[in-house]
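Private note to self, pasted from the team thread so I don't lose it. Backbone tokens:
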């Protein structure tokens, strides 16, 4: 669990974070009903905030570390680091039950920004690539909004609730 009250690329780890319905993570700079990411605020500050909570799979950290990078939870800006859930293959609208009470709804993929390259040179190419058909593949996690608030701690169970079919694949938000 990670959050930052300032616009920083990395987010310090916490013993717990509190999710607030309709807003995001209490005390995080990206908390709010409307967009908080600076580039999006410049374009249209009235847009809904579909990026309240950023989740990233720990398997990406493993992959990056095996490739010679040094990446730990929170360092790529994520709020929640998961393990054992294929986040990138979840459909839009999936609900993730975090801990005993909190529920987030998946809105889309994180579109990695150049700050990743500034964090560690060569990292952007590791988290954005192309598949065998030439399609862009984004691996830097998923974004969500908070439906039900609650406290979440490292190690809490995460339960996946898929939406009704037909499923829509994730696109950048």
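Design output:
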């Amino acid at each position: 669990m990670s959050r930052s009250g300032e616009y920083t690329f990395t987010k310090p780890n916490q013993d717990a974070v509190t999710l607030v319905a309709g807003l995001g993570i209490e005390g995080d700079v990206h908390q709010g009903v409307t967009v908080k990411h600076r580039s999006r605020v410049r374009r249209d500050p009235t847009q809904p905030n579909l990026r309240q909570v950023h989740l990233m799979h720990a398997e990406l950290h493993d992959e990056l570390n095996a490739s010679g990078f040094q990446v730990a939870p929170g360092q790529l800006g994520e709020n929640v680091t998961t393990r054992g859930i294929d986040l990138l293959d979840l459909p839009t609208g999936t609900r993730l039950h975090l801990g005993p009470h909190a529920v987030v709804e998946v809105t889309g993929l994180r579109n990695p920004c150049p700050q990743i390259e500034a964090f560690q040179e060569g990292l952007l190419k590791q988290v954005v690539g192309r598949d065998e058909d030439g399609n862009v593949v984004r691996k830097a996690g998923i974004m969500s909004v908070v439906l039900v608030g609650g406290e979440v701690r490292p190690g809490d169970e995460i339960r996946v609730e898929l939406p009704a079919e037909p499923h829509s694949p994730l696109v950048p938000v």
